[in-house]
Amino acid sequence: MSNFGQMLRQTLRSGRLLTDELMSRHTTFRVGGPADYYVEVERESELAEVLELCRQQSISYYVVGNGSNLLVGDRGYRGVIVALGRHFSEVEKIEDNKIRAGAGALLSVVAKAALREALTGMEFASGIPGTVGGAVVMNAGAYGSELADVLGQVRIFDPEKGVQKIPATELELGYRTSNIPTRGLVVLGAEFCLKPGKATAIGDRMEELAAKRKAKQPLEYPSAGSTFKRPEGYFAGKLIEEAGLAGFSVGGAQVSEKHCGFVVNRGAATAADVRLLCREVQQRVQAQSGVELELEIKLLGDF
Description:
four-stranded mixed sheet, five-stranded antiparallel sheet, alpha+beta
């Protein structure tokens, strides 16, 4: 192990360290080469020390959640992938109809907690496969709702200032975007402001949305959800279908025939397959309709 690897291991007290860890094991696309170091931290202090060590040694790092919106290159990631451990997955109800959740908690778990407490507002998130941290960073949404609608405040780690709480209004939340990446912040947790409701109605709405997803989305294949952002005034899936690209494939990657807004891994895709397919889709859609599709998924690492 390198000197940096040894220093990294010494920094960890309760977390774990893996070297040359395939990112295909940690992304919902099930593709991606090895990260030099994969670190799972269990405490905020541990996270702070790992990031400070990376800064001191000029080593790149990237904090991941469920890997549900991530495409990692086949050659992997040169640096440290930091994953949040179970300590960051706690969910609890607090005062004034609020739910507090760690950055590593799945949105589906938060939605179920809201259901148990008969609190409405999180139904839209019940089928989103990401974690709270990643969802806050990209202002995740579905079926006409988004996190900005219910997000009260966020607990963050600022490498310069330490742990802070920031109101959601300061995060510049927009369509699948926030200022968190540009500010170099790491989400530690969030508070969601919900409203009292009826558990039966909340549960019925969650079941309705689950049925819609099952009927319209290719859940049987690995993917990263919606691959392209929705262009203003259009739907990405419809534009792709109109360009004749339903079922179009590159290697093991394919435009889903069930929902053209999804690129799926049919079983043997590489990150290069996915990237090439996305470029081809963008070019053909622009030639067909004049609309430029923007990727919703995050590209990371060496392609």
